[in-house]
Each structure stands twice: as structure tokens, then as C-alpha cells.
Amino acid sequence: MEVNPKGTVFVELIAKLMDLLTDPNFSRIEVVMANYELDDNGQRKVKSGKEVVAMRPFVVEGMDETVQDGLRKELDRGPITLLMVLWIDRTQKGVPLRMLFFDEAGKRRTPRIDGMDHLEKSVMADYLNRQVKS
């Protein structure tokens, strides 16, 4: 059984985003779709000893039909190895970064960074770099 059965990810994603948007302490909400880039043989590309990651961040500042259509198009565009929602929580002391994963069945993770894989760490680092620049 899948954690997010086919066809339900969009509905669950929109519901979670709507919840996040109602909290005034949450800002800089992004949905990030990521995958490993593959070579012509279907193997993961490696550059400078690290697997190459392709990310598609989608900033969410509100929830209307245009935003929902944009998200649906990005999800349908595929491929997606990782789907994360990241945001800043001003109530958190220290690092205010929060994240939500839409995981495949059986995926287990620890709540700390050391439990994240290369793809997840890459997405998180890219998000944090965008926040510093803006």
C-alpha cells in the first residue's frame, strides 16, 4: 500500500498548503519537486563526485486557481523522485526551517538532517540559499 496512492498527492498537497497559508507565523512556503538527472543509459549522472540533482521549486504565496493549475502542471510534468514542502516558522527557536515530505511507502526517516539522503539535503540547501539571497 502506498503512503500517497496515485492521484491523491495533489489533493493532499493542496490541503496541506492551505493549512500552512492560514498560519501567520509561516512564510516563504515552497513546494520542491526533485529528481536525480539520468544519463543516456538511465544511470544517475555524477559531477565532481556527487549525483546531479534537478530541482523545480514552486513558491506558494497564496492559493487560487492559478496556483493550483501551476502546481498540477509541475506534478504532471514528472519525473519526481522527491516532493517536499519547505517553509519558515517564526515560532521556532534556532533554525526556523520546517519541512514536509510526501514519501513513498515504507520510507523511514529520522527527524534530523543526518537521517536525510543526498537528494533531500540538496533540496534543503538549495531552499536555504534562495532564502538568504531574497
- Report helical residue fraction: 25-40%
Mean pLDDT: 85
- Count up the helices: 3
What fraction strand? 25-35%
Q: Class by helix and strand content?
A: alpha+beta
Instruction: Report how far apart the termini are.
Output: 40 Å
Task: Characterise the protein shown here.
By secondary structure, this protein is an alpha+beta fold. It has one domain (9-133). Helix content is 31%, strand content 26%. It has helices at residues 9-21, 65-77, 118-133, and strands at residues 26-36, 46-47, 50-51, 53-59, 82-89, 97-101. The strands form 2 sheets. A 4-stranded antiparallel sheet has the order 4-1-5-6, with helices on both faces. Strands 2-3 form a two-stranded antiparallel ribbon. Strand 5 (82-89) and strand 6 form a beta hairpin. The protein is globular and about 45 Å long. The protein starts with 8 loop residues before the first helix and ends with a helix.
